[in-house]
Amino acid sequence: MVIIKTPQQIEKMHQAGRLLASVHKELKKRIVPGVCTLDLDKFVEEYLLERGAYPEQKGYEGFPYSICASVNDEICHGFPRKDPLKEGDILTVDMVVRIGDWLADSAWSYQVGQVSKEAEDLLDVTKACLYEGIKKAQIGNRLGDIGHAIQSYAESRGYSVVREFVGHGIGQEMHEDPQVLHFGKEGRGLRIQEGMVFTIEPMINIGGHELSVDENGWTARTKDGSLSAQYEHTLAITKDGPIILTDQGDQDE
Q1: Structural domains in the chain plus CATH codes
Q2: What is the predicted pLDDT for the residue at 252?
Q3: Which stretches of the chain are DSSP H helices?
Q4: What are the tens digits of pLDDT across the range 210-238?
Q5: Which DSSP state fits 197?
Q6: I need a labelling partner for 208 at 20 to 30 A (CA). Which of 74, 162, 174, 239 fits?
Q7: What angle do CA 230, 182, 136 make, to 5 degrees?
Q8: How far apart are CA 113 and CA 193, in angstroms?
Q9: DSSP of 86-131
């Protein structure tokens, strides 16, 4: 069942989203060669707790960290670790922030120092896929319109879209209805209504879309070892169009 949010509830989620966006801006300054993702995880947890918020992923179904930190061929749910990041790596940081009873969710991919043209192009296309999807998040459209826009953009540029992980409704729970696929056909799926709040979070690979999951039961990586990237926003559907609750301002240019 899709839970429609009131404007007042959306504003509470926007508070969480603004804080989450500020975390990503702070992380951008810290993601450099030599830093370890375990230190980034500690920074995020302390940053949120100091501001009266909570890293909702920590403890979720046993997940032990405040962020997911996925490097290079890791698609999502990467575990923070002590190994230092290297020049040329790409890193996706995904997190969910709770303020009071309300949540916001956003992932962002970062360059570590100077990266290859191949990696830079992947990041550009993946971010563009996110915004192509957001354009379709309009009252009266269908969820399939979002997935079709993302898949069409990615595949027209020679990339593949991960199928197994999807966007989702969010509110007082991390995962609510509806599911938001990043592939599919126009005119299919649930009709988009005012008051819906959900994430769009395409995961795009340079190679094939197939994946495998590590022994930790969480970390998904590309089966062919190719690079993967992800960008994610939480958005609210209004009569004036989608509001990006996790907007980072200048980083979204």
Answers
A1: 7-247 (3.90.230.10)
A2: 46
A3: 7-30, 37-50, 117-135, 143-156
A4: 999 999 999 999 999 999 999 999 999 99
A5: E
A6: 174
A7: 105
A8: 42
A9: -TT-EEEEEEEEEETTEEEEEEEEEE-SS--HHHHHHHHHHHHHHH
